[in-house]
Design a protein that fits this description.
Layout (H helix, E strand, L loop, with lengths): L18 E6 L8 H13 L9 E6 L5 E7 L6 H17 L4 E5 L2 H4 L2 H19 L7 H6 L4 E4 L1
Parallel strand pairs: 1-3, 1-4, 4-5
Antiparallel strand pairs: 2-3
Helix pairs in contact: 2-4
């Protein structure tokens, strides 16, 4: 199964994806301003504290139905937090029948080139492990599996 990963700068608009996974430490929400403001309001009402691997979903308004999947980083984010967060986003997308995911991490964590490699590996491991299904004895089900596309932004 091919799982394309790409790294792009955040633009003014959100990417076209069914699920937009965002990592936050509670202070920085790496999203375009209007979306970030609406998401903060929803998250504060829901009691989101941005603890390690804490998750919340926010349905985004618009002509295309999309879900913002917010993942807390906790006080000292580790690669395991990113791996588990991406895995949770992939599992959510699969359960909801969605096929595309874009992920955002705070810019301060993406500034260092060596950190980008480690985070990329954690993102890929989380996505692959969450998307894995043992189908050796179910050939008919293996053929019906749909590919999931993950983009790291």
């Amino acid at each position: 199964m091919a799982l394309p990963l790409s790294l792009r700068a955040i633009s003014r608009a959100l990417p076209v994806a069914d699920v937009i996974a965002v990592f936050t430490d509670g202070k920085e929400l790496p999203l375009p301003l209007g979306v970030a403001r609406a998401a903060r309001t929803h998250l504060s009402r829901a009691g989101f504290k941005a603890g390690a691997t804490e998750t919340r979903t926010v349905l985004l308004p618009g002509s295309t139905p999309r879900t913002l999947f917010v993942i807390g980083l906790g006080r000292s984010p580790t690669h395991d937090v990113f791996r588990c967060g991406v895995a949770a986003a992939v599992q959510y997308a699969k359960a909801e029948g969605m096929r595309t995911i874009s992920t955002f991490a705070p810019a301060r964590l993406m500034a260092d080139r060596s950190q980008q490699e480690k985070l990329g590996r954690a993102f890929a491991e989380g996505a692959i492990l969450a998307n894995y299904r043992f189908t050796a004895y179910r050939a008919d089900q293996a053929k019906r599996e749909r590919a999931l596309r993950l983009t790291r932004v």
